[in-house]
Write a structure and sequence with these properties.
CATH topology: Thiol Ester Dehydrase, Chain A
Distance between the termini: 37 Å
Radius of gyration: 16 Å
CATH architecture: Roll
Strand content: 35-45%
Low-confidence stretches: none
Order of helices and strands: EEHEEEEH
Number of strands: 6
Strand order of the largest sheet: 1-2-4-5-6-3
Number of domains: 1
Number of helices: 2
CATH class: Alpha Beta
Structural class: alpha+beta
Shape: globular
Helix content: 10-25%
Length: 138
């Protein structure tokens, strides 16, 4: 169904010469069924929109030792909402890895308006887990 899920499919942003960033981005036009009573996209969907892109950025961080097939779980996420978009607003989601400390991956993300205004910013910590542990086979 066209109105099922958030339909956010981030892809890699080409790095600038000599810079390996792992940045990903995706366009997003929130569906009307995501609106809260005030007519804007409900806060929980704004949070959800910024969740997975930080995971994609973290797993894609080759410069942080990731190979792209690791299993990760969201450990913690914080969000600062400046302004929620409305359904039908053309938005851009961008996420980038910010570091690694052992099993912990750190990534930030932002929800931008079509003209580049920062609407929402997020910071996430992801945990690299052994795939066998994740599947309950260990």
């Amino acid at each position: 169904m066209d109105d099922d899920g958030l339909r956010i499919i981030p892809g890699p942003v080409p790095p600038r010469s000599g810079h390996e960033t792992g940045t990903v981005a995706a366009p997003w036009v929130p569906h009307p069924n995501l609106a809260s009573e005030d007519g804007l996209v409900a806060g929980e969907f704004v949070w959800a929109a910024l969740d997975c892109p930080t995971g994609f950025a973290g797993v894609g961080a080759r410069h942080l030792g990731m190979i792209g097939t690791e299993a990760i779980l969201l450990g913690r996420m914080g969000v600062r909402i400046e302004r929620r978009p409305g359904p039908g607003d053309r938005c851009i989601i961008v996420a980038w890895p910010t570091g690694r400390d052992g099993r912990k991956l750190f990534a930030d993300s932002a929800l931008l308006s079509a003209n580049g205004e920062i609407l929402v910013a997020a910071r996430a910590t992801w945990l690299v887990v052994d795939r066998q542990v994740q599947l309950g086979q260990r």
